[in-house]
Amino acid sequence: MTHVENMYKPNPYHNNTHAADVTQTAGVIMRALDMHLRSNSSISNNGCSGCNCCPSCCCANNKAALPASNGGGVPGAATQSSSNSSSAEPGLSKLERFAIIFASAVHDLRHPGVNNIFLVQTRDNQAMTYNERSVNENMHASLAFGLALDHEDLNL
Question: pTM of the prediction?
């Protein structure tokens, strides 16, 4: 992530702080999804909603009432088998969680601070490289995977 952070330009908006914000927001959304799924799957379990909202809630007093973490970095997240086609409980797999976090972190990598239309109309080299189609988006993805290829320890 340090390599990714260092690849961001110091633009007023599309910078490393924006990438961190988007990545954190993705984590919050995944956590909310986990809580929603956990709550819905726990309703049939002795009437407990799985909300963990008060000391008398059975899930606050009995951690065994909660589904185990899937190891994806979100405590209490719904578990899923290694195969995405069938799961023990609904939820995101470790690979899906990783993909969301990774995509969030690199989604504006080395953003030039201007939009695609500007790059095309000024005949920027990036516009030519990506055939004037989704110029910034293609550049972000290319740089992210290029970083992974350039550093053996980062190869996805």
Answer: 0.68
